[in-house]
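re: ur question from the group chat, yeah i did fold both. here u go
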Amino acid sequence: MSDNANDVMNNPVVLSVDHVSKSFKLPTEQATGMKQAFINWTKGIKGYKKQQVLKDISFSVHKGEFFGIVGRNGGGKSTLLKIISQIYYPETGSVKVNGKLVPFIELGVGFNPELTGRENVYLNGSLLGFTSEEVDAMYDDIVEFAELEEFMDQKLKNYSSGMQVRLAFSVAIKARGDILVLDEVLAVGDEAFQRKCDEFFTEIKKDPSKTVILVTHDMDSVRKYCSRAMMIADGEVEAIGDPETVSQQYTLANLKADEAAERKQREERGGYPNGLNKRCPLLRTYAVSPQILKSSDTFRFAVEYQYDEPGDFYLAIAMHDIRRGGISYDTGMKTFKMEKHGHHTVHFDIPLNIFNNGEFRLITSLRTPNPVNDERTEAVGVAVDENACTFVIQDDRNREYALLSDRALTFTQVDISNKD
């Protein structure tokens, strides 16, 4: 944890969540009348099942923190935010807030399309607990940030969806509260507005009087903005502390969940894994190195195969860019000629220095010569789904946009001007 983050931890606690639990009753049978309800009661049929969403959650947030909450869908993040925002109340435990809390759970909630932009600002401010005088003091900042000065006296229903998003988001972040609670709202508006939001969060992070609680699936935002982060899984605190460590744990949880889903699909299909068959019953690519790496690392992976037929055969490996799409690298169809038949494992290395951040998947195919064309091969088996290998590059030196990093291109300036 950085020195700045440690300093913040010495500040007073502005939010304390103490042993909070929450469950919901999900209906399983519907009683259409009193008679059926009585029959269900006599048979001991409750008509619902209990879903435990949060289980004994405890944590605290200090004044000036930018606190991130991450977790897979269904883990309990949104329920926790609604409890913090007093939309829901916990079954057990307590939540204590010291200061003015401004929740922003969903974009545009509380807006009325028949009212003007100006009227909606005051309506939304009132719903957030501000007086008309307090909204007066915030109004100009809200409108300026939304860049909608010329449209505030038009009805909201005449706004484009992008304009509505900008106004709703501006009301939330420019509201003069002490604690700002945001749920999945960083990717709002067009590129220019997102840059503006990025600048705002960079500045608010420096303000020791402002506290931000951010729920997001974007690990780049967690690492960039947050001084501390917490991961929730199955309604429990899975990890809390350094944003880099928590984001890595979240990324690994996603990779494992994807692999488990693919394995379940294979079991439901029965027989050989997708892409494999009697001739090639085993072909899988798996990580030997950690699956989350920096560009200075070399990613080592292995390919395990089973091939018993005589004759030449090859392994071909393609690297797919999951975020940007497309094939980043392909070894070609006859690059790696295997010498050993049967059940074996071979290892490969990929230097990562020229790559930007991203998520990549390695797909291996086992191939034999094409009897007609010597330059080509035919796929016998392909390692896809759970038999493919995924790895992630996360490095502060990198950018997110292009595939190749700035280190991939160098230049030499040559002066070719005429000299007398």
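okk and heres the other one u asked abt
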Amino acid sequence: MDLIVSAATQIATPLTLLAIVAGTLVGVIVGVLPGLGSVIGLTMVLPFTFSMPQIPAIALMLGVYCGSVYGGSITAIVLNTPGTPQSAATALEGFPMAQRGEADLAIGWVTTSSTIGGLFSVLVFVLAGPSLAAFSLQFTPIEYFALGLFAMTCIAGVSSGNLLKGLTAGALGVLLATVGNDPVTGDLRFTFDSFQLSAGIGLIPVIVGLFAFSEMFMRVLTIDRDGPPPEQMRVGFRMPPLAAWKGRLGMLLRGSLIGSFVGALPGTGAATAAFIAYSEARRASKHKDNFGKGEPDGLVACESANNAVTGSALVPTLSLGIPGDPVTAVMLGALVVQGIAPGPQLFANHLDLIYAIFFCLIIVNLAMFAIGALGASLFTRVLRIPEPILIGLILIIATVGAYGVNGNPFDVWVAFIAGVVGVVLRHFRFPVAPIVIGMVLQPTIEMSLRQGLILTHGNFWAFFERPIAAILFVITALTLCWPLLRKGYARVKR
């Protein structure tokens, strides 16, 4: 009890509270701007932490981390331009709601779901941290390969009723992700002797092109001919009524559980969690026919999942000293600078620090809700800008976002080409989200497959001898076959 009181006292200082609010606000802004994301946000504020006391420095980093994960959903809803990769799933349901004039309600859904998912992960972080970290150690490359395959089943859920086109788009994403260095041998592949392609095709420029550029190109072609006029769109934040949550609390809990579990696995990340949760929501929802048309179930699932990653991702980082992704790697470096040595002894010898981080995460998520609710009117105010001016501004911001990731003009060309390809795909009714899914999951699937084959001396069938992997393979098969089984059962019943 004394440790809890001591941790609460350290958090309740003006400097720490200011760091939480400032960090969360900066994180939301970074998330809103396409092409930036959590890593850039953390590296921007990292120099400021060097001269700060330990707890305020941690609070600032946590605020940027959580705020940036949430912020990407705002532009995904308002402009169909995901600010971060994990927000691509949010755009699938959020933007159709904005087109119906319900941008404020969509932001209400994602803000509430994000906050609850984040708070849920905090409980997981404190109550199940050491146990979850120990369980994650049982994941070998074989289990990661099985998890990656299961995540690929999301393509079936976002293919708009045409699985063949969705798989084709997913295969295109996988192909794009293979360009560059071979992760095992280091050989160059699919570069066609181009020096620019030797570093691979960046995920962020492709996302900016497929969503932002293609959306703006489509708007140029159909300007003033579809969707409600900007002046009729509601701006701000509208809290979903309590009656609307009936039947969706299970979706919220399921998404939070998925995000907490995936976040605790090193090397996965929020984008994987969001797409898995979206696919599961589409399978289990009572409103599955409304998916792709602005269904809140999809928003609740993916937003609770990607924000639940934030707390659980700290579990392997703090308890094992293993950063799960570039975001937690930057945070790990910041913790080391502050004199904190992550590892198995941290939970045993520095429990007061763990409780301080626990309280920080709670306040960060509450601050995120307040900033989202109070600042939503500013974020959605762009809907009232005349459409030609809005298109120009978005193209400028998207171009800066594509360029700013690596400072490479080639990325701007990648985004432009991806935008043209996105227009062609949309014209022929190919879904573009599977391309992002393929690019996000391909590195994990390929690397874990090849490492697994090395461990089993090239025997793929040995993968099925691993209990966790076998269970994931079975779940994947059932997920893919479930529509056929359901139709067969209905036919037999008739």
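fwiw on the second one: The radius of gyration is 22 Å. The chain has one domain: 2-493. idk if thats what u expected
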